[in-house]
Amino acid sequence: MPTTRPNDLALTVVLICQDAPPLEREGRAMEFGAQDKAGVLHPGLPEGERAVRFALGVVARPAAHGGVDFAGPFVHGVPQDRFLYLGYRRLSETTWTRRWKIPLAALTWSQVLAAHEGGKEIMGRVSAGGTATVRLLDLGWSVTGGSAQDTISGAD
User: Fold this and answer.
1) Which residue in 1, 4, 14 sits closest to 115, CA to CA?
2) Angle at alpha carbon of residue 97, lines to 92 and 102, rounded to 5°
3) What is the pLDDT of residues 47-99, one digit of tens each?
4) What angle do CA 100, 134, 49 make, to 5 degrees?
5) 96-103 and 132-133 beta bridge pairing
6) Distances (CA, A) of 5 to 90, 118, 134
7) pTM
């Protein structure tokens, strides 16, 4: 993933969606994935029963408002309100059956630095049982593990 500014830090954000929706609904094929800026859904990897793991490449930088600003093909929203989308729709259609908005605002610069300097990932868990903006499960975002080998970089 290219970094474009001197203070940009490349990171892997791992999002695990528990209770992922089925890939068949009412006899129709469905798709579920991390939505990039072009509206393309990128499928994740199975993570146990009905859970899906997404490893997404993002860029973090210090924000003018004092927090962290995120960028990259999977990052949506304005600088003060960045988020990721998970989407669900009929295969080969563009109308959403459902989308989940996962806010990035709770991520701190110290977490970003710890992940970047330690070659680790930032991880969060969500449930697809929620609607619209969903809350992270457990303790929210955390720094964990090593760099993902299966990071989805998407298209810029």
Assistant:
1) 14
2) 110
3) 988 999 999 999 999 988 778 999 999 999 998 899 999 999 999 898 999 99
4) 75
5) parallel
6) 38, 21, 31
7) 0.88
Report the distance separating Cα 85 and Cα 34, nearest Å: 6
Question: Of 81, 135, 103, nearest to 13 (Cα)?
Answer: 103
Burial 7-26 (b: 16+ CB within 10 A, else e): ebbbbbbbbbbbebbeeeee
pLDDT tens digit sequence for 21-35 = 999 999 999 999 999
For residue 100, which of 85, 88, 79, 83 has the smallest C-alpha distance? 85
The torsion region of residue 110 among left (phi > 0), alpha (psi -120 to 50) and beta comes to: alpha
For residues 38 and 115, give the distance between their C-alpha atoms in angstroms, rounded to a whole number: 27
Any residues with CB less than 8 A from the CB of 52 and at least 6 apart, and which? Answer: 16, 17, 20, 32, 43, 44, 45, 46
